[in-house]
Backbone:
């Protein structure tokens, strides 16, 4: 007989303390496979789907739709069909003895620190074990390391994980120089050097994908694998200036929201808190300049042409290059598979926009884990 | 993000601006403190500790203790601003503005106009305001209507630590005289405040809570309690929109009017006696510009038309209470 598997309120991100259950996607009594989408949860920052932590029958739904529950609390139980109610009761009671704080601490949290690299002070986050080839996550334009919040737990269970705030973003220096891919890639490379990481799994999103590709092209030995999520500057793609200009110009939550909604397939998933976070970021000294300079560079030809010229060499890498993309990406468009050199593989994600690692985290995590654990 | 108090946020803003721009100076009573007494010179840092540590870092040339003469403080600050410095002048309690009001409303506020644009007065006047401290009638007022009605002054009322830092940085960088009213009862309030410098523009309201049933406009210390009432009423299905204008002058009229066009109902919560209050000002604005959207009369929740009582029981009843705010909301929703 298999063990009873507890379903807990997950901890997404650094500041989440409680979540609201929006809807159970499977009824009590349903047979569940590990990794299946199980319930929809809303936090202050986002609405997302939690996956089943194990396989079994959904024997108990403990917290119903509408319940507001602290992180770590028991919200359901998976078990065999023949596990007795008494055993389930005993398990639930015992679980209640553990404080929510204890169970919340089990979830990996990014440890933040400031480092000096490439003449700038940069913020990085770290999670996971000490052994193994590290995973390095590079966020996109106007985002920061918190955008990996739904991917950390899955990756940090297996390998050391580092997430960086690029110059101009998050808690890092707002000096982006001329805002070029080379400038940002140098900062990334210098960060890895400072941390003593000689060979890593590079995973980059959007502008961060282009930065990761730039670094891997300039310093091939640094990347064990290269994975690009909705990357900028791919052949066939087109960067939306409506988005870039809109995010830079919008000074109020009301005017900013529609531009952030361009990022995702489901506009309802953009919460007030997300919009406020971006507004607060934009107010920080030096950010408007950093965003303007990088926007200008993103719309220009120099970086795009140079990167596309290096795609053939990147394709030759052992393991090639994996692109995770969506056909409905309103920010960078859709990469043209036929224009990519052999050695590039594209995995298409359905029902996602420009943020598949957030919108379809379970699916993307599975792909990433398969790639870095090979 | 680090958690800081409203007071620490103000101190943060001062320190970062004084590091960034050597023309920024601090002037007031006991802003350094300790001179002529035992203990460390500069150890006071203002009566609530707002200027803590600044004397130590920037010295007596930039952190200036004055005699007990508000007109000297404000006159010196106005003159310094006219001649190239960016003074942050402190009024220990806003109630003391009476003795120096000429320097503020008749001098500083009017220099730019009267000198045909050839002069700027980039000064900030910081003051502790508000009741709740058993400090009695002469140390518990807010007086923001007095400043708001003066053309040439900008008036800022932060309601939380994040806003306090961003608005004070903006005030120091603004080239006009800015009245920065710190709610005494909020000094201990904690919130997420970035270590980096950032600015919040004036004339931009914060919609603290979105809603469709009724619009609640509140200022300064009234914002947290109005928000708490709104959150409690949400459990009954009452969906209140809470607007914090952040600055009474310039005032973000558009955010308020847009909200009324949706909700049709307004309650204004203002820590001020009712006559010529911000509550009266906003009620008139809405009645004039959004009359067609109104579904009910506008209610004002204010202090009574009396001085602030010394009796603790009376003082607690004097300032708009959650109970009075709730009652006004229910009355408006129940109309006709």
Residues:
């Amino acid at each position: 007989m298999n063990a009873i598997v507890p379903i807990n309120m997950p901890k997404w991100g650094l500041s989440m303390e409680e979540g609201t259950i929006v809807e159970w996607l499977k009824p009590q009594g349903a047979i569940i496979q590990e990794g299946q989408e199980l319930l929809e949860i809303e936090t202050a920052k986002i609405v997302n789907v939690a996956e089943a932590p194990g396989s079994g029958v959904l024997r108990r739904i403990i917290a119903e739709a509408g319940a507001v529950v602290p992180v770590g609390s028991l919200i359901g139980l998976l078990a065999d069909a023949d596990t007795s109610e008494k055993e389930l009761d005993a398990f639930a009671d015992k679980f209640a003895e553990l404080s929510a704080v204890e169970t919340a601490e089990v979830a990996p949290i990014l440890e933040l620190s400031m480092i000096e690299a490439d003449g700038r002070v940069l913020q990085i986050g770290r999670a996971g074990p000490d052994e193994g080839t590290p995973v390095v996550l590079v966020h996109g334009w106007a985002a920061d390391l918190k955008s990996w919040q739904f991917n950390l737990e899955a990756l940090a269970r297996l390998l050391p994980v580092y997430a960086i705030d690029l110059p101009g973003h998050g808690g890092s220096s707002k000096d982006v120089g001329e805002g070029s891919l080379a400038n940002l890639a140098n900062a990334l490379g210098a960060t890895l050097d400072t941390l003593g990481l000689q060979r890593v799994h590079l995973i980059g999103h959007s502008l961060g994908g282009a930065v990761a590709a730039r670094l891997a092209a300039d310093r091939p030995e640094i990347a064990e694998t290269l994975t690009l999520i909705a990357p900028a500057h791919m052949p066939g793609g087109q960067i939306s200036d409506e988005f870039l200009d809109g995010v830079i110009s919008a000074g109020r939550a009301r005017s900013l929201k529609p531009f952030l909604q361009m990022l995702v397939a489901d506009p309802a998933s953009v919460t007030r808190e997300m919009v406020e976070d971006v507004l607060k970021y934009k107010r920080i000294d030096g950010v408007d300049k950093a965003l303007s300079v990088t926007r200008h560079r993103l719309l220009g030809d120099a970086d795009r042409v140079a990167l596309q010229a290096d795609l053939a060499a990147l394709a030759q890498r052992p393991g090639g290059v994996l692109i995770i993309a969506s056909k409905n990406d309103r920010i960078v468009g859709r990469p043209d598979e036929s224009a990519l050199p052999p050695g590039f593989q594209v995995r298409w994600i359905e029902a996602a926009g420009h943020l598949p690692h957030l919108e379809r985290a379970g699916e993307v995590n599975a792909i990433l884990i398969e790639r870095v654990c090979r | 993000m680090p958690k800081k108090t409203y007071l620490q946020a103000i101190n943060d803003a001062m320190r970062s601006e004084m590091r960034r721009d050597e023309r920024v100076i601090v002037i007031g009573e006991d802003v350094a403190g300790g001179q002529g007494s035992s203990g460390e010179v500069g150890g006071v840092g203002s009566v609530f500790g707002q200027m803590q540590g600044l004397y130590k870092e920037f010295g007596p040339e930039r952190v200036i203790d004055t005699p007990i003469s508000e007109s000297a403080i404000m006159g010196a600050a106005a003159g310094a601003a006219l001649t190239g410095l960016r003074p942050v002048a402190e009024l220990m309690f806003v109630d003391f503005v009476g003795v120096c009001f000429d320097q503020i409303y008749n001098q500083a506020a009017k220099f730019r106009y009267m000198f045909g644009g050839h002069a700027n007065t980039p000064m900030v006047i910081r003051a502790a305001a508000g009741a709740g401290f058993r400090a009695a009638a002469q140390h518990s007022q807010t007086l923001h209507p007095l400043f708001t009605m003066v053309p040439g002054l900008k008036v800022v009322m932060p309601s939380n630590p994040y806003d306090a830092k961003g608005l004070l940085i903006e005030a120091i960088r603004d080239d006009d005289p800015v009245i920065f009213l710190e709610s005494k009862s909020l000094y201990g309030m904690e919130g997420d405040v970035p270590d980096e410098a950032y600015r919040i523009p004036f004339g931009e309201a914060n919609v603290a809570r979105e809603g469709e049933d009724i619009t609640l406009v509140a200022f300064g210390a009234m914002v947290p309690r109005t928000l708490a009432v709104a959150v409690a009423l949400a459990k009954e299905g009452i969906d209140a929109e809470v607007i914090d204008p952040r600055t009474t002058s310039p005032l973000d009229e558009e955010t308020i009017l847009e909200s009324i066009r949706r909700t049709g109902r307004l309650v204004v919560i203002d820590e001020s006696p009712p006559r010529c209050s911000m509550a009266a000002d906003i009620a008139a604005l809405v009645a004039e510009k959004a009359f067609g959207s109104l579904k009910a009369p506008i209610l004002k929740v204010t202090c009574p038309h009396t001085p602030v009582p010394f009796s603790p029981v009376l003082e607690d009843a004097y300032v708009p209470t959650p109970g009075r705010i709730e009652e006004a909301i229910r009355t408006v929703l129940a109309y006709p």
Observations:
- DSSP finds eleven helices and 14 strands in chain B.
